[in-house]
Amino acid sequence: MVHAADLMRKAVMRLAWHSGFASRTRDRFGGLGSIIMLHRVRPDCISPLGVTRSLSITPDFLDQILTSLKSEGTQLVSMDEMIERVKTGAQDGHRFAAVTLDDGYNDNLNHAWPVFQKHNVPFTIYAAPGLIEGAAVLWWEVVEKLVTKASFIKIPGGPEWRCGTLFQKRAAFHSLMRYFSYTLTELEQLPVLREMCAAEGMICSVPADQDVMNWKELRQIASDPLCTIGAHTVHHYNLKKLTADMVAREMRLSADMLEEKLGKRPAHFAYPYGSAKAAGKREAEIAAEEGFLSAVTTRHGTIHPEHRANLHALPRISINGRFQKLVYAQTMMSGVTTPIANAGRRVVQA
Ligand SMILES: [Zn+2]
Description:
- There is one protein chain.
- The protein has helices spanning 4-18, 21-24, 26-29, 59-71, 79-88, 106-119, 129-133, 139-149, 166-183, 186-199, 215-222, 244-262, 281-289, 326-333, 338-341; strands spanning 33-38, 40-41, 56-57, 75-76, 96-102, 123-127, 152-154, 160-162, 227-231, 268-270, 294-300, 314-318.
- Helix content is 45%, strand content 14%.
- The chain folds into two domains: 4-133 and 214-341, Glycoside hydrolase/deacetylase (TIM Barrel, Alpha-Beta Barrel); 139-199, no CATH class.
- Helix 1 (4-18) packs across helix 14 (326-333).
- Strands 1, 4, 5, 6, 9, 10, 11 and 12 form an eight-stranded parallel β-sheet that branches. Strands 2-3 form a two-stranded parallel sheet.
- It is an alpha/beta fold.
- The protein is globular and about 60 Å long.
- It is built from 15 helices and twelve strands.
- The structure holds zinc ion.
- Zinc ion binds next to loops.
- Is involved in generating a small heat-stable compound (Nod), an acylated oligomer of N-acetylglucosamine, that stimulates mitosis in various plant protoplasts.
- It holds the Pfam family Polysacc_deac_1.
- It comes from Phyllobacterium zundukense.
- Residues 95-350 form the NodB homology domain.
- GO terms for molecular function: hydrolase activity, acting on carbon-nitrogen (but not peptide) bonds.
């Protein structure tokens, strides 16, 4: 699927890089470095409608990115080291990049880990215990499977969509994404999804169907000194839609469960969804109160000395499956796209 907006973004990024503008302005916009955000790393694309393709890159592309970063002198660091560098402002003439992966997909173990080991590069995986235990689902993946299979979709007691053609299926998927994100409460999502799946003869919420690592697999990858495990709530809820007490509980319980299962309390946190609609000042304050050293959003931006005062709302650079060329990753990490994506702001915080 080709998006007109993607074509425009790609054209702007190619121009910024090939004209030399991105490298000339890197000192101003690139800051101390970047936190890279990934989700899935696998050789094949498993998005049947192409609508969740952005969440997946290939191991080859990961290899290219790490090779390129090392060759240009970028220091690849753990989240602990990243925090130290932000606190001290230490640069040593080199920018840093910290690699993070959200949700704990099992392809992180099978496909990404060998690439990190090959390059001896630290990485952080933000895991949500509810996804492992079957108490939560990656609902957007189930919705895509549902829309792919069905010719007609109805929300129980709510709107309905025809999905006979590919065009209708993609339109229905995007409408359902909005419905699940903004109309349903977080606690309603799973029961509604289960009912919709039952109507199509599909089973929902089976952990094995979700492609996330089980506890044994998470322990296996966590045993590598290169790997840091961070928390990502228990149920992968949009925290802005919860009360402050529930936010604190989701954060604390996810850390408790990871500590119990892995033997080490996570020091770093990632907000589920992580946009301005899912994480703000209140969530950043609670993450700090709950004792996390850092918390990352999904807002687009590079890391600057100003973030020293706001370590619980750190932006990231998403390496998107629809933008799998080095030129796009290099341009975004130069920082030149940060003000474009953030109404002119060079430093992105909560
Ligand atoms: Zn997530």
